Amino acid sequence: MGPRFPPKKRGGAPSPILDPCLLRPKRLDGSRCHLVHQQRLDYCNSLLYGIADTQLQRLQSVQNAAARLVTGTRRSEHITPVLRSLHWLPIRQRITFKVATIVHKCLNGRAPVYLSNDLQYTGQRRTGIRSASAALLEVPRSRTAVGDRSFSIAGPRVWNSLSATVHESRY
What we know:
Number of strands: 0
Distance between the termini: 56 Å
Mean pLDDT: 81
Low-confidence stretches: 15-26
Number of domains: 2
Largest sheet: none
Number of helices: 9
Strand content: under 5%
Radius of gyration: 23 Å
Shape: elongated
């Protein structure tokens, strides 16, 4: 059974109903959908670092729906190749990328001072240890799961998990 639309009014101005053809376009411009959906998904997503998988699954389903809308892919088809073809990271990886980007900006002087003050290289406190020569960051201790999600802890953890070539890169 097709979609139901309210009956048209008799006489007077035409009803403000959208044309059914406009509701399901066959293919959208990828950049337009990226602007609408991906920016909404990226807004403050670094706050979602360490959140439960059940909560992230909601955002992932929104991203999957946007990818299907852009490409015209059916729900029965796998979404991973579609996301790869659009060059869209899954939500958890987007969040990790965002945190790593903020840390990189902090270390290169391109972020606010209040964020940069939370990061210290391991060699600044202790000298004579092996990690002092590496570009690793000090990871403070936390007693709670919420504390582990804070930028001062999550940022250094993400940064230390990256390769040495990323650590040495500038801008």
